[in-house]
Amino acid sequence: MNRREFLFFKTDGSRKIAELSCEKLFVHYQGLSSGFHQAQEEAGSFDEADWWAGEPPLFIASIDTEAFFRSVQSEINDVDSLQVLDMEWLQQGDFRIRVETLLAAVRAKGSDVIFQTEEQVT
């Protein structure tokens, strides 16, 4: 998981603040759900291979969506405030439920959850 795609951390005095982009989180979530995952980089080059070698077996490293959202939750576990951006991306059924569950866990820890509208961002 590359949290820099959808999470941005900053501080305001002693307060830890995280910004969560629902748009970028949704794109990452869709990638996990699609069945297409990043394959392990292959060693060597085409020129080094024998002409008869063929393709090596594909090794796919993937993470399931439960583990993915657990890792996101652990990343934002100690923030004082979570700012949620791009809320229009929360229209999707299963994705919305997962994000709402994530936000409920943040609130349960005593952190603020702030929904930013487009007017507040610009």
Tell me the CATH architecture: 2-Layer Sandwich
Bulk shape: globular
Helical percentage: 25-40%
Domain count, please report it. Answer: 1
Helix-strand string: EEHHEHEH
Say how many strands there are. 4
Largest sheet report? 4 strands, mixed
Kindly report the spatial arrangement of strands forming the biggest sheet. 1-2-3-4
Distance between the termini: 28 Å
Low-confidence stretches: none
Q: Mean pLDDT score, rounded? A: 80
Write down the Rg: 19 Å
For the record, the CATH class is Alpha Beta
Q: State the helix count.
A: 4
Alpha-beta classification: alpha/beta
Strand content: 15-25%
CATH topology: Transcription Regulator spoIIAA
Task: Describe what this molecule looks like in 3D.
This protein is α/β, with parallel strands linked by helices. It has a single domain, classed as Transcription Regulator spoIIAA, CATH 3.30.750. The chain has 4 helices and 4 strands; from the N terminus they run ββααβαβα. A 4-stranded mixed beta sheet has the order 1-2-3-4. It is globular, with a radius of gyration of 19 Å. The mean pLDDT is 80.
Detail the topology: elements first, then pairings.
Blueprint (H helix, E strand, L loop, with lengths): L6 E6 L2 E7 H12 L31 H11 L5 E5 L7 H16 L3 E4 L2 H4 L1
Parallel strand pairs: 2-3, 3-4
Antiparallel strand pairs: 1-2
Keyphrases for this structure?
alpha/beta, 122 residues, 35% helix, 18% strand, 4 strands, Transcription Regulator spoIIAA, single chain, 4-stranded mixed beta sheet
